[in-house]
Amino acid sequence: MPPDEGRALYDAATGAAAGLGLPLLEIGSYCGRSTILLADAARRAGTVVVTVDHHRGSEEQQAGWEYHDPELADPEDPAGRLDTLPFFRGTLARAGLEDHVIAVVGRSPVAAAALGGGGGGRFGLVFIDGGHTDEHATGDYESWVPRLAEGGLLVIHDVFPDPAEGGQAPFRVWRRAVESGAFAPESECRSLRVLRRTGPGC
Ligand SMILES: C[S@@+](CC[C@H](N)C(=O)[O-])C[C@H]1O[C@@H](n2cnc3c(N)ncnc32)[C@H](O)[C@@H]1O
Q1: What is the DSSP string of 138-155?
Q2: Domain shared by 96 and 152, yes or no
């Protein structure tokens, strides 16, 4: 992207982020050059940019085509396909903008259907196995469980009723779900608990 286009993109992103305060969306992260422009605009407005890419390159970036860069080929890939994800991550890290970028690695229409409009943005299963502090486990619960569809499954890992067996944050989240009245027990296996959503709330 030439500098004047980059400036135009940055100006547009700055205006949009400041005006609405909503996350920005990019399709085509590649090695992160445009992403850092959007991310800096998002940072200034206290929001983030969500950027989608399968990181295997567009048609014109494949071997034998005009915009092919052999340095971007994945040395571990038997077919020598591109992998721009490490370069993308390096760009963000060097720019100090990692906290303002949510990278979605996948095909654009599939990501849109899962996360965005067109009936997307609802999940049939939410598996909570992230940070195990109260702050993170509760944050995961409150952030994602509202997106769990009725009839869907809430699965929580590392649920230990006995503190001698393990940390209590996942247990507290599981108990909160049970006590909410919005879930019914479905099954359990050691520390893995499965609940089914039977009504709204969490
Ligand atoms: C022209 S590059 C993006 C350049 C980037 N915006 C910049 O200015 O630095 C196009 C990117 O789109 C990605 N891409 C192409 N088709 C895609 C698809 N269907 N889903 C997700 N990513 C795709 C490719 O992997 C490639 O990284």
Answers
A1: HHHHHHHGGGEEEEEEEE
A2: no
